[in-house]
Specification:
The chain is α/β, with parallel strands linked by helices. It is built from 12 helices and 7 strands. It is globular, with a radius of gyration of 20 Å.
Length: about 300
């Protein structure tokens, strides 16, 4: 009996040291270039992690101060920060906006150190960002900065003012449709059917984008969001349908991966999804470890 108890205690210690304790909570950080990118690409999984008690933080690498047809500068930056703070409350997560100008993000040493410190302070198990071949320079450099931080977060004498991580996080890319120099190839496609309304509600808080670029697809005008009444309800329905269609396209495009991960019956029934690709930098998680880090699969 005594030997059995010793073995069980030893196994429990091993599981804790290996990061596989059943009650261990994950810590996730998502970098987006602008105050809306994280919400668009990972709002669903963020809500799902949060519901399970895991800690999620969205970081915008720029303050979004030119992302509107009429407003700009500090006024717009403050507005967009308020909007993502409201979105974070809907999702049950935390959020942070870095003080870099929209359209001017560069992969500087200063920004690399800022990324390293943010990841370390959050003690992240998972870090996600854009791929570095995205269409927007801010998106590309957000991806580059994540990659540049991927090894440095573990180096004790780099940014020694912030304690280094003893275990490298798993780094992943957010989805995109760009084909060159290489297409997005997801390792994980996650059903967000159960939280699609919550994600839409979070996106609905980003009103500066709804009335400008998301509405007009250019920066030459705005379509103001009605403040109340049936007109506001109608605008929200139109908005909801548009953005649900986006997550439905992800599910349809990666249907084979959904079937692989969920089984044929459920995989074919999933309507809304978000997709993520494992980065070659950082910890190279196996397929089984990825499923533990994304604990949404039966």
């Amino acid at each position: 009996m005594k030997i059995c108890l010793i073995l069980i205690a030893g196994l429990s210690t091993f599981l804790m040291d290996s990061g596989h304790a059943q009650d261990e909570k994950l810590r996730i950080m998502v970098f987006g270039a602008h105050p809306d990118d994280c919400e668009l690409k990972a709002g669903g999984v963020a809500a799902m992690w949060a519901k399970q008690g895991h800690a999620v933080k969205f970081v915008s690498a720029t303050n979004g101060d030119i992302g509107h047809a009429i407003m700009s500068g500090g006024e717009l930056a403050k507005r967009r920060t308020r909007e993502v703070q409201a979105a974070a409350k809907v999702l049950g997560i935390e959020t942070h906006v870095m003080d870099n100008h929209d359209g001017e993000l560069m992969p500087t040493l200063e920004n690399r150190k800022a990324f390293v410190r943010l990841i370390r302070e959050w003690k992240a198990d998972i870090v996600m960002a854009h791929r570095p071949n995205d269409y927007h320079p801010d998106h590309r450099y957000t991806g580059v900065l994540m990659q540049d931080a991927a090894f440095m977060v573990t180096v004790s004498n780099y940014c020694p003012d912030t304690p280094h991580l003893t275990k490298n996080p798993v780094f992943l890319y957010l989805s995109d449709g760009f084909q060159k120099p290489n297409p997005f190839e997801p390792n994980l496609v996650v059903s967000i059917d159960g939280v699609i309304e919550q994600k839409i509600e979070a996106l609905w808080t980003l009103e500066s984008q709804i009335e400008s670029f998301w509405a007009t697809r250019n920066f030459e005008g705005v379509v103001p969001v009605p403040k109340e009444g049936e007109a506001r309800k109608a605008r929200k329905r139109e908005f909801s349908q548009r953005f649900q269609a986006r997550s439905m396209l992800v599910a349809d495009e990666y249907r084979a991966k959904l079937i692989e991960l969920y089984g044929e019956e459920r995989g074919n029934r999933i309507r809304h999804a978000e997709a993520f690709e494992l980065c070659e930098y950082g910890r190279r998680a196996s397929a089984s470890e990825l499923k533990k880090l994304f604990p949404f699969f039966e």
